[in-house]
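[Automated response] Your request has been received and processed.

Submitted sequence:
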Amino acid sequence: MCGVSPNRLKPERKECGVMFIEIGQNEGEWFPFQNSKIDPLTGEPVFDDPVSDAKVQIRSMTPFFEERIAKRKRQTEHVMNPKTRAMERIAYYVELSIEESRAERDDAFDFSITGIEGFKDSKDGKIIVCTRENKLALMKVPVFDRFFARCQQLLSSSGVKEQVEKNSPSGPVIS
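Generated structure:
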């Protein structure tokens, strides 16, 4: 019973403090846009410091793909094992066609990019609005594609850091 201790003599426990967390869908984290180029010696992308007010709201693609894979149809077959000569049952997901793969990739980009601010079209100077068509057009630009990949990498590594801190026997590690 939070708020009052059961015997009313002890003060309220700290665990009973109220914390509001939105359980709804995560809209993502805002990342300032960073221009990049490929280092000719190493072949790795090198990111510049953010110089403009352009930023993108991105969320992890993992929930999207988990949901899609859960809905995919599994196919099973019985195949003879050549060593044991016994029939073994194997299960696998049906392979997607090229069109289905492209549509799923485009849906994943649309799911992951939830906000765009501060981007203008270089041809006519109009502000780029966060629509599916604009998101897919931006993903075709190599600089934006590298930026998006880096953001996904940062999102996935931040989840690993949180897991390590939770599972650490001495609590969070402070560097």
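Summary generated for your ticket: The helical segments are 62-71, 98-112, 132-139, 142-167. Residues 138 and 160 are 28 Å apart (CA to CA).
If you did not submit this request, please reply to this message.
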